[in-house]
Amino acid sequence: MRLTDFWERLEQVFGAGYAASVAEDQVLIGLDGRTIKEALAQGVETVTVWRAVVATYPDRVPSRLH
Predict the structure, then answer these.
(1) Of 29, 33, 39, 54, which residue is most buried, by most CB within 10 angstroms?
(2) Do residues 33 and 27 lie in contact, with contact meaning Cβ atoms separated by under 8 Å?
(3) What is the SS3 assignment for 66?
(4) 3 state SS of 65
(5) Cα–Cα distance between 38 and 25 in angstroms, integer?
(6) DSSP assignment of 2-61, as one string?
């Protein structure tokens, strides 16, 4: 998954303003206690980060975006 696709999906799920907050402030268990921004900066693949988002917010992410 391209990084631009990742951010587009995150904004579709949370809205533009809140997506940035989720990426910066929410620590995800699926990312070993890192935020989305930390994981991406440390080289974690975007598809891995996206899977962690889906696992953390299963009711919020529409199935078409899984």
Answers:
(1) 39
(2) yes
(3) coil
(4) helix
(5) 10
(6) -HHHHHHHHHHHH-HHHHHHHHHH-EEGGGTTEEHHHHHHTT--HHHHHHHHHHH-TTTS
